[in-house]
Specification:
This protein is α/β, with parallel strands linked by helices and about 270 residues long. Helix content is about 45%, strand content about 20%. The protein binds 2'-O-acetyl adenosine-5-diphosphoribose.
Length: about 270
């Protein structure tokens, strides 16, 4: 089937669906300037996950090379601090005019919310929510708070890196003290999925007629089991991205190009 007929078949499935789950990963935010994890030059190329994405790895790196953790925090937070929703996030939000839409995202960047999607389950948590060590929510931070942390950390590196100065710089998002610690509510490898988001995401995947997967490699479980679960429950599975993942119908291309074109067809504006 050619690209045009794939697009129109996907639009038919979306038009016929009552409940749609949009399941997104880092690729949906790539065109907002946030690097993906596994593409060439992605986050894990620069910061190997065994050193930066597990609690024990991160603590060991912090003890041996604290300046590398500072660089990791800058690498993670700076693109998010600067980001705004792109055409793909906006098209996902617009889709709500046509059906019930639940967004399930592995992203921690808040861009689906900012685009106007109303039901968003962030299964790997949110960088904007600061929690204590029991997981209790303490406060929310803004993109400009993240920008301030990045600027202060950069200054620390420019000054030759002093641990006390670095700790002060990250205090709005990460702090250790006699009472315990606070940290962003994001899921590292080996940690439990964010709740209630994960339970809601599984329920929505079981109940949807159509799942639209956008910009994920499908490499990380348990999140990657959601499309399989939706398929077993009878849903049509569409995937959008440069690389094929588990799906019935693959729309090859970038999210920022494909999703607006798809939305046009769903709204009856396309040819
Ligand atoms: P990955 O980096 O594994 O995959 C990103 C996917 O997006 C790839 O399939 C790319 O081809 C695709 N992509 C790149 N640019 C795109 C574009 N402009 N439009 C559409 N697709 C594009 O990121 P995720 O699948 O999100 O979790 O990774 C899943 C999890 O692994 C993350 O949530 C994170 C990471 O480790 C944790 O850290 C727990």
């Amino acid at each position: 089937m050619d690209a045009v007929s794939n697009l129109s078949r996907a639009a038919d499935w979306l038009r016929e669906a009552e409940n749609i789950v949009v399941f997104s990963g880092a690729g949906v935010s790539a065109e907002s300037g946030i690097p993906t994890f596994r593409d060439e030059g992605g986050v894990w190329d620069r910061f190997p996950p065994e050193q930066f994405a597990t609690p024990s790895g991160l603590l060991a790196t912090a003890a041996r090379q604290p300046h590398r953790v500072a660089e990791f925090i800058i690498g993670l937070l700076e693109p998010i601090a600067e980001a705004a929703p792109n055409a793909a996030h906006l098209a996902v939000a617009e889709l709500e005019k046509h059906a019930g839409v639940t967004v399930v995202t592995q992203n921690i960047d808040g861009l689906h919310h900012d685009a106007g999607s109303t039901t968003v389950w962030e299964v790997h948590g949110s960088v904007f929510q600061i929690v204590d060590q029991a997981g209790r929510q303490l406060r929310r931070v803004s993109r400009s708070d993240l920008r301030a942390v990045v600027d202060a950390l950069r200054q620390t590196l420019a000054d030759g890196f002093q641990l006390d100065q670095a700790r002060q710089a990250v205090r709005p998002v990460l702090d250790f003290g006699p009472q315990g610690y606070c940290r962003p509510d994001i899921v590292l490898f080996g940690e439990a999925m964010a709740e209630p988001a994960w339970t809601k995401a599984r329920e929505a995947s079981e109940e949807c007629d159509c799942m639209l997967i956008v910009g994920t490699s499908g490499a990380v479980y348990p999140a990657a089991m959601l499309p399989e679960q939706a398929k077993s429950a009878g849903a049509n599975i569409i995937a959008v991205g440069p690389e094929r993942c588990f799906c019935d119908l693959w729309l090859r291309g970038t999210a920022g190009a494909v999703l607006p074109a798809l939305l046009k067809l769903v709204s009856g504006q396309g040819t």
